[in-house]
Amino acid sequence: MNQIWDLDAGFLDDQLLAEQMRLLSGLINDQTSMVKRLPSHWIGHEEAMVVRLNQLIAEMRLRDIATPEYQTICEGTIIWPARFHEPLKDQLQKLALRCEGGSSGRIVIPSNERELWAIYRYSVMARNHASFLSLGQLVASRKIAFDDLLLELVHVARAVPYQPDMQSSLQQMWGYVSAHSFIRPNEVSNIELLKEVQLLAKQAKAEYLLKSTALGELAFWC
């Protein structure tokens, strides 16, 4: 069965990214064989699959890998599968083994809740400020287990960003590289601001931003 990964594309190494893009592009563009090839829990969630493909494309572009154009998403609610291909912790373990073999993604596999929260925090902020505050408090007070936190973060990051919160998230990200920037964040579009953050994060080797899911996945939503 073809596996569609549920973790953020930033965790995937270049080879996995390319394989996932070919898989999803093939499924989306070949409707006649989709049902036969599509994992059963993804049937009926074609719009979510298009979002997943666009997230892969955004990550590949961040890594300067050639990609096709983004796929168009129809208007309406995007409904994701109710279950995963396999438990998220098992997916992380598989990626950790690939890292040990020399195939690593942009984002290092986290070893504790604080590292995991740092990776996803700006993606959460871009969706729901209340969730950002509550999850941050749970992590700070050590009242949420790693597996539970990972599940919450993956679910929140699947939502369509709320534009005012996304702007706030991008501006906070820009703050890490503002010393090297000549733009005024309130005077540019979200996509222009994110491109500036991406460029300067790579130039300045801003580790905190380079390990953030938001640095890649927000590009499509902008």
Topology:
Blueprint: H1 14-29, H2 31-37, H3 46-62, H4 88-100, H5 113-125, H6 129-140, H7 146-157, H8 163-175, H9 190-204, H10 207-210, H11 214-221
Helix pairs in contact: 1-2, 1-3, 3-11, 5-6, 5-7, 8-9, 9-11
Question: What does this protein look like?
Answer:
Helix content is 59%, strand content 0%. It folds into two domains: 108 residues, Endonuclease V (Orthogonal Bundle), CATH 1.10.440; 112 residues, no CATH class. It contains eleven helices and no strands. The longest helix has 17 residues. Helix 5 packs parallel to helix 7, helix 8 runs parallel beside helix 9 and helix 9 packs antiparallel against helix 11. The model has no long low-confidence stretch (mean pLDDT 93). By secondary structure, the chain is mostly helical.
Main traits of this protein?
222 residues, mainly alpha, Endonuclease V, 2 domains, 11 helices, globular
DSSP strand tally: 0
Q: Helical percent range?
A: 55-70%
Give the SSE string: HHHHHHHHHHH
What shape does the CA trace take?
globular
For the largest beta-sheet, the strand count, sense and barrel status come to: none
- Number of separate domains: 2
